[in-house]
Amino acid sequence: MASTPQETLANLLSEDRTFPPSPEFTRTANVTAAAYDEAAADRLAFWETQAHRLDWSKDWDRVLDWDNPPFAKWFTGGELNVAANCLDRHVANGLGDRVAIHFEGEPGDTRAVTYAELLDEVKRAANTLTGLGVEAGDRVVIYMPMIPEAAVAMLACARIGAPHSVVFGGFSVDALSSRIEDAGAKLVICADGGFRKGKPLALKPTVDAALERCPSVEKVLVVTRTGQEVDWNERDLRWEDTVGTASAEHEAQPFDAEHPLFILYTSGTTGRPKGILHTSGGYLTQASYTHHAVFDLKPETDVYWCTADIGWVTGHSYIVYGPMSNGATQVMYEGTPDTPHTGRFWEIVEKYGVTILYTAPTAIRTFMKWGDDIPARFDLSSLRVLGSVGEPINPEAWVWYREHIGGGKCPVVDTWWQTETGAIMVSPLPGVTATKPGSAQRSLPGISVDVVDEQGESVPNGGGGFLTIREPWPSMLRTIWGDDQRFLDTYWAHFDGMYFAGDGAKKDDDGDVWLLGRVDDIMLVSGHNISTTEVESALVGHETVAEAAVVGASDPVTGQGIVAFVILRGVAESSPEHVAELRNHVAKTLGPIAKPRQVIVVAELPKTRSGKIMRRLLRDIAEDREIGDVTTLADNTVMSRIKVGLRSGSED
Ligand code: 6R9
């Protein structure tokens, strides 16, 4: 075994399948290998070229001001309007009749919104906000289901320079009120409710309760979505009565490139949520370029679908700002993948002829569990690019996605990035890269990501360590809202002059990057640092495992012992022999050091609304502790179900 006690992070998994792009794909690809050379020759000139993909009212004086690191300013002196770049310029170019959003409501209601219609609605909303006293710099909180008005609200804020803070529809009163308070928001835009899992789910009562603690909020603008009974307070206004009747004349004013565009709260694993601040010119440059390059978007012919929620950064950069700045036609779906049946996603792909699909590993593993026969019932031949984001994608899930969704012909792009990075940082380019299942591969042109050891030295190929970013990038966070010190301490204090992302990673023999999960989750077993990702991937590599989450639980002999929680596929239940087989399978795949001490079969795993497994809660169970903070769980009853399941005796 290659590991030594000094290793930063063990490199156990080897995967040697590769999938080069087809010559036809490469021939028409938006971006070629030359982009890497161009960016390597002059990084700032490269980003300057990408910034010219946008319309600016005033040119910049300087591409990057890094005089006071890590507080970056990009395109200083430049001025633009972000919403005008997403809407007005397309309409002015004669594309007003192009569909911007094919909306598919969960109950089956649909709407096609063209760019001209979207612009009209955004202008009305901008006039409404201004009429309510919202000025440039004022913060607006958006708490909405996945409906076109959510995008309208964001773009209206951008248009008048009022930074938005979108909070996941469905977050609790506590989560909502703490975000409203931290941002000091003046206005909240919400809906009466949204449809989820076949039922109307009320949102307005949560806003009402949250506002009891938030004196800064003057007005609440309420979109009617479900039509359910809600209480009306004096500060509440109906969207239909205000935006619906407002003037559609509105001239977008340019703002400075560094004008704040949005705050988005990220909870991290512990502590107070951090308000990640993004600004305008650099953010839009990178969101727009990466959407064009990584998904190979051809706006005239593609139908793009990102299944993320608008409350996640993925919804900001790859539903609203990236795609719309590129004039894309996209699908927006309100509901869950199993309502009213487990083929809903594939029915939508078939119905709209979706060509580019961007989703999360958690969804892909769920589809694997539901069975190959479900996507097989639908015509998915329109698809040509598949993307993944949010967590490391296990090689087996990657290969399943390529075969069963992509018909074995679509490039799969595994995109690594964060709320903090604003846009994609590490990813294959679909017409260039020979992809490897489970690897995000290399920094995009103009981005310099590295894997370093504790001293901040680059690890050699084959080594493991910490993922860092060596050079500033256009869509980087500018600070944590109201807390520069926390910004410095959280991201810049670990390694001199480098941004630390909090993720473990390794380089393979070709220098390609493999993400290994959050460093907080790394397990220390008999002196070896073992990543959660590798053990989980080994488990998912077994034909009876759909999903796995592993944690290190304190162990008197080894320091920590590996405890695995698994969801089964293809088999109804487990047995002591089956559990033994799974443990041996991991030992065989990764070496005896990674053999789980315990394998526990569960029906579900605790996840955030964006689909990330919350291992910290599983650690509480594995160590038999009281379960910690569950406020950001998608379903906060899941932990009690796991506990009940354990007591009824499925333990090894
Ligand atoms: C976009 C987004 C960021 C964290 C990040 C990492 C994990 C995201 C990943 C990935 C491996 C990928 N992550 N994409 N890990 N491979 N392709 O997810 O933002 O919600 O802020 O989460 O998600 O751990 O540090 P955010």
TrEMBL record:
<feature type="binding site">
    <location>
        <position position="545"/>
    </location>
    <ligand>
        <name>Mg(2+)</name>
    </ligand>
</feature>
<keyword id="KW-0547">Nucleotide-binding</keyword>
<feature type="domain" description="AMP-dependent synthetase/ligase">
    <location>
        <begin position="90"/>
        <end position="473"/>
    </location>
</feature>
<feature type="domain" description="Acetyl-coenzyme A synthetase N-terminal">
    <location>
        <begin position="34"/>
        <end position="86"/>
    </location>
</feature>
<keyword id="KW-0007">Acetylation</keyword>
<dbReference type="Pfam" id="PF13193">
    <property type="entry name" value="AMP-binding_C"/>
</dbReference>
<comment type="function">
    <text>Catalyzes the conversion of acetate into acetyl-CoA (AcCoA), an essential intermediate at the junction of anabolic and catabolic pathways. AcsA undergoes a two-step reaction. In the first half reaction, AcsA combines acetate with ATP to form acetyl-adenylate (AcAMP) intermediate. In the second half reaction, it can then transfer the acetyl group from AcAMP to the sulfhydryl group of CoA, forming the product AcCoA.</text>
</comment>
<protein>
    <recommendedName>
        <fullName>Acetyl-coenzyme A synthetase</fullName>
        <ecNumber>6.2.1.1</ecNumber>
    </recommendedName>
</protein>
<dbReference type="GO" id="GO:0003987">
    <property type="term" value="F:acetate-CoA ligase activity"/>
</dbReference>
<comment type="similarity">
    <text>Belongs to the ATP-dependent AMP-binding enzyme family.</text>
</comment>
<keyword id="KW-0460">Magnesium</keyword>
<dbReference type="InterPro" id="IPR032387">
    <property type="entry name" value="ACAS_N"/>
</dbReference>
<keyword id="KW-0479">Metal-binding</keyword>
<feature type="binding site">
    <location>
        <begin position="414"/>
        <end position="419"/>
    </location>
    <ligand>
        <name>ATP</name>
    </ligand>
</feature>
<dbReference type="InterPro" id="IPR011904">
    <property type="entry name" value="Ac_CoA_lig"/>
</dbReference>
<feature type="binding site">
    <location>
        <begin position="196"/>
        <end position="199"/>
    </location>
    <ligand>
        <name>CoA</name>
    </ligand>
</feature>
<feature type="binding site">
    <location>
        <position position="518"/>
    </location>
    <ligand>
        <name>ATP</name>
    </ligand>
</feature>
<dbReference type="Pfam" id="PF00501">
    <property type="entry name" value="AMP-binding"/>
</dbReference>
<dbReference type="InterPro" id="IPR042099">
    <property type="entry name" value="ANL_N_sf"/>
</dbReference>
<feature type="binding site">
    <location>
        <position position="540"/>
    </location>
    <ligand>
        <name>Mg(2+)</name>
    </ligand>
</feature>
<dbReference type="GO" id="GO:0005524">
    <property type="term" value="F:ATP binding"/>
</dbReference>
<dbReference type="GO" id="GO:0005829">
    <property type="term" value="C:cytosol"/>
</dbReference>
<feature type="domain" description="AMP-binding enzyme C-terminal">
    <location>
        <begin position="534"/>
        <end position="612"/>
    </location>
</feature>
<feature type="binding site">
    <location>
        <position position="503"/>
    </location>
    <ligand>
        <name>ATP</name>
    </ligand>
</feature>
<dbReference type="InterPro" id="IPR000873">
    <property type="entry name" value="AMP-dep_synth/lig_dom"/>
</dbReference>
<dbReference type="InterPro" id="IPR045851">
    <property type="entry name" value="AMP-bd_C_sf"/>
</dbReference>
<feature type="compositionally biased region" description="Polar residues">
    <location>
        <begin position="1"/>
        <end position="11"/>
    </location>
</feature>
<feature type="binding site">
    <location>
        <begin position="390"/>
        <end position="392"/>
    </location>
    <ligand>
        <name>ATP</name>
    </ligand>
</feature>
<dbReference type="GO" id="GO:0046872">
    <property type="term" value="F:metal ion binding"/>
</dbReference>
<feature type="binding site">
    <location>
        <position position="542"/>
    </location>
    <ligand>
        <name>Mg(2+)</name>
    </ligand>
</feature>
<feature type="region of interest" description="Disordered">
    <location>
        <begin position="1"/>
        <end position="23"/>
    </location>
</feature>
<dbReference type="Pfam" id="PF16177">
    <property type="entry name" value="ACAS_N"/>
</dbReference>
<dbReference type="InterPro" id="IPR020845">
    <property type="entry name" value="AMP-binding_CS"/>
</dbReference>
<feature type="modified residue" description="N6-acetyllysine">
    <location>
        <position position="612"/>
    </location>
</feature>
<feature type="binding site">
    <location>
        <position position="526"/>
    </location>
    <ligand>
        <name>CoA</name>
    </ligand>
</feature>
<keyword id="KW-0067">ATP-binding</keyword>
<keyword id="KW-0436">Ligase</keyword>
<dbReference type="InterPro" id="IPR025110">
    <property type="entry name" value="AMP-bd_C"/>
</dbReference>
<dbReference type="GO" id="GO:0016208">
    <property type="term" value="F:AMP binding"/>
</dbReference>
<dbReference type="GO" id="GO:0019427">
    <property type="term" value="P:acetyl-CoA biosynthetic process from acetate"/>
</dbReference>
<feature type="binding site">
    <location>
        <position position="314"/>
    </location>
    <ligand>
        <name>CoA</name>
    </ligand>
</feature>
